[in-house]
Write a structure and sequence with these properties.
This protein is an alpha/beta fold. 48% of the residues lie in helices and 14% in strands. The chain is built from 12 helices and 10 strands. The protein binds coenzyme A (COA). The site of coenzyme A has 15 residues, from helix 3 and strand 6.
Length: 297
């Protein structure tokens, strides 16, 4: 009899294909990628310090509005984050008083239906690649996170907000709808009713309200924002990196599966991690009452 693979099994096979080389085959057979010098950027700053990359949207005179040039640099930065072995986690923030005040309205005002759609798809792809880069990404939201800025923050795995941060999806005020994933990620984060309220009213909310509805994970004084975000991220990257990666993947994919499919995905990830040196190290360290030293293998 012909066995037909379920959708969950097919998804699992693709996860296995991407995870196996790192998890099971000793990487010593391949030369380890050396840390590379950072590429040069003009509209973002990209700094790597002790395995943490900080990506700062740097167009403060326009409140870091995402024009096509910024999005192209962001796309290259995401490639760099994904490829570089010396980057374990990422902070995304904005220069000056804004995180990001949205897509660039000057550029949007000139678009027609086809280039408008293409811009939306390009932006969605960049944010999706950031979300699936395999490393934990935290947004440090320092000020306005509006439109594409709120969407960029939502594509990060966690959000830490300054008490001064403001969030919103004001696109309807301009006669458009969110285009970088806002209609999809916002309801997944805060529920359909709250997402409909925010998107249909276009209203701006403060950090406390964003925290209460689950849009942000933590609110901190403005002066502590980067330090608190880095502290949170360093806590995460001290865990087993493969365990973090597969946990993110299970939550990301599982949210769109039936419960049974999601549970199968989780069990498969759980089993796969049993093949890793990290699991032996994590449990060995607990039993020997010492701190673990994970290698991501
Ligand atoms: N696109 C392009 N330029 C933008 C922008 C955007 N999304 N958001 C702000 N800017 C520019 C302003 O045009 C201004 O440029 P200028 O000095 O050359 O005139 C500069 O950034 C500063 O903005 P300004 O409006 O003067 O600051 P503010 O503190 O008075 O107001 C905001 C801040 C965020 C409330 C206001 O800028 C705003 O509503 N921005 C648009 C938000 C939005 O609709 N985003 C979704 C886009 S799809």
């Amino acid at each position: 009899m012909v066995q037909v693979a379920s959708a969950a099994e097919i998804r699992w096979r693709s996860v296995l294909r991407s995870a196996l080389p790192a998890a099971i085959f000793p990487p010593s057979t391949k030369p380890k990628t050396q840390p590379r010098p950072t590429m040069s950027y003009e509209l973002i700053r990209f700094e790597v310090n002790d395995h943490i990359a900080t990506l700062t949207i740097n167009r403060p005179d326009k409140l870091n509005a995402l024009n096509d040039a910024v999005m192209a640099e962001l796309s290259s930065a995401v490639d760099e984050i994904t490829a570089r072995d010396d980057i374990a986690g990422v902070i995304v923030t904005g220069a000056g008083k804004a995180f990001v005040a949205g897509a660039d309205i000057g550029e949007l005002s000139k678009q027609g239906p086809f280039d408008g759609k293409a811009r939306s798809v390009r932006g969605q792809n960049v944010l999706r690649r950031l979300e699936t880069c395999g490393k934990p990404v935290i947004a440090a939201v320092n000020g306005f996170a509006l439109g594409g800025g709120c969407e960029l923050a939502m594509a990060c795995h966690l959000r830490v907000a300054s008490e001064k941060a403001k969030f919103g999806q004001p696109e309807v005020k301009l006669g458009i709808c969110p285009g970088f994933g806002g209609t999809q990620r916002l309801p997944r984060l805060v529920g359909k009713g709250r997402a409909l309220d925010l998107i249909m009213s276009g209203r701006m909310i403060g950090a406390d309200e964003a925290f209460q509805m689950g849009l942000v994970n933590k609110v901190v004084p403005p002066d502590d924002l980067l330090q608190e975000t880095e502290k949170m991220l360093r806590g995460i990257v001290a865990m087993g990196p493969l365990a973090i990666r597969l946990s993110i993947e299970a939550i990301d994919s599982g949210c769109d599966m039936s419960l049974d499919e999601g549970l199968l995905l989780e069990a498969n990830h759980f089993g796969l991690l049993a093949a890793t040196a990290d699991m032996r190290e994590g449990m060995g360290a607990f039993l020997e009452k010492r701190d673990p030293e994970f290698t991501g293998k």
